[in-house]
Amino acid sequence: MLSSIAAELSKDGGTLVLLHGNADPDALASAFAVQSNFPDVVIGATGGLDRLSKLLAAALGIETKEEVADLSKRRSLILDTSGPEQLEGEFDLTNAIVVDHHTRNSKWEGARLYHCDDTKSSCSEIIIDLLKAAGKKPSREVALALMYGILTDTGYFKFAKPTALVTFAELMEANNVQMDEAMGLVGVEIDISERISQLKGAQRLKYWKVGNYIVAMSQGSAFEASVCKGLLSLGADIAFVGSQRGEQFRISARATPALVRKGVHLGKLLGGVGSETTNGGGGHPGAAGITGTGDVEALLNISAETAMKLLKELDSSRN
Question: Which domains does the chain have, with CATH numbers?
């Protein structure tokens, strides 16, 4: 399949790479690698970039476009996006190539080509395989971007599978990159607005004890993923943080590595919540999200109740 995708991307007509809203470094790094190795590629970040992606783009000079209506005749390459609901704007699915590493989604089945490998810890790893299939070697800048994509998507290796470590080491050796250079590519100092969001998240915290585990949820207006991490540091085992923007909502979720090892998969959990509420959810075992239309408080409650039910099932299965 990857050889077929490489052949498509090499054809005339140009490619528009589409990323999910608030695109993370793994998505941006994957797009940058494609742009650097295939002809006439434009990166469309119609839903914007998250804070780390903006810093990555500045560090490596990666250009993206938020308005892509004039590029609609190009083939689309959709990267690192678990479902169509995570994209903003219109696109022709029948002319789209989808490459993802989340749980396989039947909503992508109508795509021109669909490659999903959920054995990978990051989309960056799949793109490295794509470059190999095309007979291309990433430049040092592209390698650094892909390494940062792997780092951030694995929680700096906390959730990494063995293949991610092998791939990362291969990139280090092939490009003479030291670990401190990869880790320090983007400055991650937390600014005051993010710190305030974390404090507000703690103020609005609700939590439930399920056996020896704690499920927490909170509401805010920004930095949902960062607030989730803050709640985990306070003692939660699973955290859900949501925000409301008009009729639209966004929820981020995080779980501890210990719970992931016990069988918790937040991507599947929020994928199920999304299907039940006609919204789009998905992600990784330890980090996931859901976006759509509705009341964020109601969706937070549904997510927390689903997590508590799952934890009770895990407890009963061990007894």
Answer: 2-183 (3.90.1640.10), 193-318 (3.10.310.40)
